[in-house]
Design goal:
mainly alpha; 422 residues
């Protein structure tokens, strides 16, 4: 419950931050995309540098995870206090984000294996819906402030974002190790996975799944970083959206992603989790290619907004299922380390923002979109080896040892599900 509330409140602040902060930095640096990218890269660098040791410490049995979370909450509070000092604040925000590994790990250990995709999808939808509230608040604020892109108005709106982040810091202090489950939340037992593997593939091992997902995430992080921070600037500079119009757009995006995420989860129960994720990703990548080659229509908001919505909705609807798959294949004792991988991905995301800013200034948005789409396609194709390996979700029996219990019947059920795929 605390995790879901924490996700919701963070979404309020983050929804405002993601739509307004790039414009604020852009105005502050006299219209430099490169400098916007450098500032975002600073956040990603600090997040990655902190997340790796925090993830390692999280898995140490002699240290309570709630203690690490409270240390991160202190950093977050300092970041909020330093909002006026841009680079110092963004560095601390990155450091604070690096401390989220224990929160994610406690959450993963509090969800029973076999029900993880459902719970993660609820968490994902709450985060997305709350992220739409943030831009909606920004719409109201910009409306009363004059609906103009200027430093003072952006600064006022960001202060509201800081208020929500302060509530998030308080909620972080409520996480408790005592709420974690035992064997019920352990990774999928090897017998189930290996039986499916032997019938379907023959050479892949279940241990490879986290590494393939992690590597794919790093590639997609590098790809997305080159454009994700610049979409607000694209709509501001090329499409010509006002602050109110841009934040209305960013109000609708999370809601559409939430609906699409739920649809993706439903389809995954029918055709398989990796299969459904690949379909949604490939469709989203196709729409990004469309945006790249439609420069003559960039000034037409009626064309670009639906294409952008379709692209963003489809390509971001797989996050909850992907995280659930990852946690299903990672033993409890190592989840802190693997949750830190997402922060390394964020480093690729924010680190490549510096390159993206340079490419936008030198070659334009269209060229950068094409590079991003190609890399995202490579990342999606990396999931192909997982197709015969990741089974549909089946609840495990918590009364038996997760490593040694006989689950031949469940294994055959999973195999039959694969053979029944259309």
């Amino acid at each position: 419950v605390i995790t879901l509330l924490y996700t919701t409140v963070y979404g309020f602040g983050g929804g405002i931050f993601i739509s307004v902060f790039p414009a604020y930095v852009y105005l502050l640096t006299s219209g430099s995309n490169t400098k916007v990218g450098i500032v975002e890269a600073l956040q990603g660098l600090l997040e990655a540098l902190v997340a790796v040791p925090v993830g390692y410490i999280t898995d140490r049995p002699n240290l309570k995870r709630q203690t690490i979370i409270r240390a991160g909450a202190l950093v977050g509070f300092l970041a909020i206090l330093m909002y006026l000092l841009l680079c110092a604040a963004i560095a601390l925000v990155g450091t604070w984000n690096g401390f989220t590994c224990p929160c994610d790990t406690i959450f993963a250990d509090s969800v029973a294996t076999g029900n993880r995709s459902h719970i993660y999808n609820i968490k994902n939808v709450l985060g997305l819906c709350s992220s739409s509230v943030g831009p909606a608040i920004a719409v109201v604020l910009f409306h009363f402030l004059g609906n103009d892109w200027n430093l003072e108005d952006c600064r006022i709106v960001l202060y509201v974002s800081a208020g929500f982040f302060t509530c998030t810091v308080v909620l972080q202090c409520l996480f408790r190790d005592s709420k974690m489950l035992e064997k019920e939340s352990e990774a999928l037992d090897k017998e189930t996975v290996e039986t499916v593997r032997q019938v379907q593939c023959g050479f892949m091992k279940s241990e490879y799944v986290p590494y393939i997902i992690g590597l794919s995430d790093v590639v997609v992080g590098i790809a997305s970083g080159m454009t994700i921070k610049f979409f607000p600037l694209f709509f501001q500079n090329e499409v010509g959206l006002s602050p109110v119009a841009l934040n209305i757009l960013y109000t609708g995006v999370p809601i559409s992603i939430g609906i699409s995420s739920t649809l993706c989860a439903i389809i995954s129960k029918r055709i398989g989790r990796i299969q459904s994720m690949m379909i949604f990703k490939l469709l989203g990548i196709g729409f990004l290619f469309c945006m790249s080659f439609m420069k003559s229509n960039w000034t037409d908001a009626h064309i670009m907004i639906p294409i952008y919505l379709a692209r963003t909705t489809l390509i971001n609807s797989t996050g909850a299922i992907q995280q659930a798959v990852l946690m299903d294949f990672v033993p409890k004792a190592h989840r802190g380390k693997w949750n830190a991988v997402s922060s390394i991905t964020s480093f690729g995301w924010c680190g490549s923002a510096a390159l993206g800013g340079y490419l936008v200034d030198k070659y334009g948005y269209g060229f950068t979109f094409i590079i991003t789409a190609i890399l995202q396609l490579v990342s999606c194709l990396m999931w192909i080896p997982l197709l015969p390996l990741v089974p549909k979700e089946t609840k495990q029996d918590p009364t038996k040892d997760s490593e040694t219990q006989s689950l031949v019947q469940i294994s055959h059920h999973n195999i039959n599900n694969y053979n029944d795929e259309p």
